[in-house]
Amino acid sequence: MTFADLLVMLAYLTALPLLALGLAGRQTSATAYLEGHGDLPWWALCLSLVATETSTLTLISVPGIAYGSGMVFVGLALGYLIGRAIVAWKFLPLYQSGKMLSAYDWLGQRFGSSMQRMASSTFLITRLLAEAVRLFAGMLPLAAMLDAAHMGLPHAVLLGGIMLVTLFYTLCGGLRAVVWSDSIQFGLYLFGSAACLALLWHAAPAGVLHTLQAAGRFDLFVYNTPPFTSSFTPLAALLGGTVLSVASHGTDQLMVQRVLAARCLRDARLALMGSAVGVGLLFALLSGVGVLLWVHHGGATLHQAGFATPDAVFPAYIAQELPSGLRGLMLAGVLAATMGSLSATLSAMTAATVGDFAAPCAWVARRLSLSGLGFARVITLFWAGALVLCAGLFAQGSQSAVLVGLSIAACGYGPMLASFIAGMAWPGLKARILAPAFGLSMPLMVLAMMYLHPYGKPLAFVWLIVLGMITLFGLVGLRYVIQKRSHR
């Protein structure tokens, strides 16, 4: 790592918090801290949505997958576009119809506070585990690149440093600082990815497009794979990607918090649909980097090129072949991706805690003699500590523990989405039927994730969501039949 690289990274770490806080302004109440005054522009919310759903793993993994499988993430983005159109049409009017702090307020209005808290607890637990994994796994490429540059730091120091910088602007500026910092961070790693693509294209031999087309590297889908084991077959990408997008952007507080901060329904829809275009553009850029890296290595397989995993391909290029200055910019981009998803998670978990557990939170705040804003910041600190602790625990585990942590978010998506759909489509459905079915479906999904391995491979992420929906609908139907017979 050269002095220019170090200077770029230090400039980023210094400028980002100050710029985000300058744009956010001073927060004087818990409402402003968690909701952002409701005056954020739709394009900033759009960029924040993209930065929230992507992470270091996205930045590193997509080029690696494209190296071996082509533009399959672009095919998955088509499913995302369909799913977000459904959310914009059906879910957003529900959220914009009343004053809501979390996605689960609607479940509380429809089924009562017990169902609201059950859904919110599911979000908090699954998000804690999933984000802890993203934090630790997303730190590994940064640690590897720093090691290659002879600037290695202990994992605990890196984790703590990333969290402290993120906490600084999150605690001071609230949701507004999170949205503005996300927008800046997305712009940073989008520019860095485009620069890498341009350099690889400039160095590519003549006839590179023909070479890539002949090798199938422009294919949007994967074919001839065992059913339900890949997320990139045409059915999985389009149907599964649609379901995934509806679940994540329609029922997950991490995403819904952004659209709740929009000025009006029109702005919320613009932000949501714009994010589908943004993530598709990012996937296309990163996939382009991946297929050009395949050309750069002479069409060699991962093993032939000396890579142990697909995730090693892009970090090796950043650390070893990028020019000075741009290398520092991409390292800052890797850091930005981690901080973007982390700050969004802290804000969303705080809003869900304060909004969905209002009565117990108010009691604790009175006991501690804290204002609403002060208590919200204490909750943010609590979740920050929990995330660092869980990330440290994952560091002691094996790769399988990491994969389980990444997959566990899917266990909540299916039952959660099915609960929202059931509440909309079945006016007569009561909480006494839905709540037990929801509570039972969660452990069943964990068991399915751990033990349901068709053809000897784990069930693909998107199909786990579909299975969760089917399970909840089945349990609701069974409970309804049992209750009906008991009343005869």
Molecular structure report:
By secondary structure, the chain is mainly α. It has one domain (about 5-400): Sodium/glucose cotransporter. It is about 80% helix and about 0% strand. It has 19 helices and no strands. The longest helix has about 50 residues, at about 155-205. It is globular, with a radius of gyration of 22 Å. It starts with a helix and ends with a helix.
Name the poorly predicted regions. 397-403
- Terminal residue distance: 77 Å
Shape: globular
* Main sheet overview: none
* Annotated CATH homologous superfamily: Sodium/glucose cotransporter
Provide the β-strand percentage band: under 5%
Radius of gyration, CA atoms, in whole angstroms:
22 Å
CATH uppermost class: Mainly Alpha
> What is the H-and-E element order?
HHHHHHHHHHHHHHHHHHH
Average predicted confidence as pLDDT = 86
SS content category: mainly alpha
Number of domains: 1
Judging by the overall fold, what is the CATH architecture? Up-down Bundle
The count of DSSP E runs of length 2 or more, i.e. the number of strands, is: 0
Subcellular location: Cell membrane
Keywords: Cell membrane, Ion transport, Membrane, Sodium, Sodium transport, Transmembrane, Transmembrane helix, Transport
Membrane topology: Multi-pass membrane protein
Organism: Acetobacter oryzoeni
